Amino acid sequence: xxxxxxxxxxxxxxxxxxxxxxxxxxxxxxxxxxxxxxxxxxxxxxxxxxxxxxxxxxxxxxxxxxxxxxxxxxxxxxxxxxxxxxxxxxxxxxxxxxxxxxxxxxxxxxxxxxxxxxxxxxxxxxxxxxxxxxxxxxxxxxxxxxxxxxxxxxxxxxxxxxxxxxxxxxxxxxxxxxxxxxxxxxxxxxxxxxxxxxxxxxxxxxxxxxxxxxxxxxxxxxxxxxxxxxxxxxxxxxxxxxxxxxxxxxxxxxxxxxxxxxxxxxxxxxxxxxxxxxxxxxxxxxxxxxxxxxxxxxxxxxxxxxxxxxxxxxxxxxxxxxxx
Length: 324
Prior knowledge:
Elements (H helix, E strand, L loop, with lengths): L28 E2 L7 H5 L2 H16 L13 H19 L13 H20 L8 H10 L8 E2 L1 H16 L8 H22 L3 E2 L14 H9 L14 H7 L4 H12 L4 H4 L1 H6 L5 H17 L2 H4 L3 E2 L11
Parallel strand pairs: 2-3
Antiparallel strand pairs: 1-4
Helix pairs in contact: 2-8, 3-4, 3-7, 4-5, 5-6, 8-10, 8-13, 9-10
């Protein structure tokens, strides 16, 4: 299982000790400007920490329903309020009339508000003694909602939100006790806000592989969502293409919630519009699906230059090579 992959990198348990002294926080910047730089990324502390974080959360949601009991800390509640604010701004920024069907320019107005307020929003989530980290961490929040020039959204933006949560762990704002709330509450709410953005402003999929990609916009909910199904007594991968199963269980399982959203947004046979997912439904067990998706995520997202060229590195997610 995935836990075997978790040798290096940080987890929410050991991150608190890793935050630098307050005077060393920095504004993250791009470091991967050419394809040969990709080796630098894969050897970096940031890569090890990011992947370690994804796998730790993958482990924590194993076999658990979205509706299970778990602790929701004050910081998690503040993050939900922050996402609620972004949601409210969408309501306050209706799409404008324009000739082109896609990429509604009102998105830029919405984004400008976030650009202006991000630091204050992040300061509101951080403990008072960690506010010096706000300018660094706010960059990941701004990167996580899509691109205002192209009016698109993709897995690189989703990765920025996971990086945002990872940084909050590193400064000790979120702890090991927050793992379930991070996925089931905070990330799930983020997902619903992103879907609303995508629908309201008709955002383009960033670097979409069309029918050959897993999904136009997301990847992580499929990884964590498949982990939720591990050791499930009745539901197998073949069941997620059955609309009755999806409608009955989507409130408990993130994977099915994603399938439901795809079914609402796309027309025609599932095998045609979501060929990769259709193929995954033929995999015999959820553990194989989960392992396969982790491999695919590394290959299709984290090891693709067009995605990683936009990733930003600071003191919390550092481009420096991992310590031996």
